[in-house]
Amino acid sequence: QASLPGGVAPAAGLALPFALPVLPRGSQLTLDIRSTWGDPHYVGLAGLEIFAASGEPVRLSPAEAAAVRADPPDVNVLPGHSGDPRVVGNLFDGVNAGTDETHMWLTPFTAGGHHTVEVTLDSPVAVAMVRVW
What we know:
By secondary structure, the chain is mainly beta. 4% of the residues lie in helices and 32% in strands. The termini are far apart.
């Protein structure tokens, strides 16, 4: 017998035509940053952590980590900028708490624009939490 959230059973003789997911499940995660904490020109993060339904962190394989994309990618797209170490690949290097810029990501910010980070996993996972640093 199917049940509704909270263990409530449907009325007698009625079947549930769908399943209500408790956690989102998939292999692609897109984070769309729409505002900053006040900086009119840049937005950045120190890290991202994805946690599975088990509560364990989802460890990205080297191929998954290399496939993380951002749009815009980083400040190196700006004229006169090159070689800046604050790239999107740093978001999953495991160094999240600190002030070392070589473990962070920074990208140009445009008010009203989309600033995305896309993570593609090799197989679907039920996501319990995403920690943003």
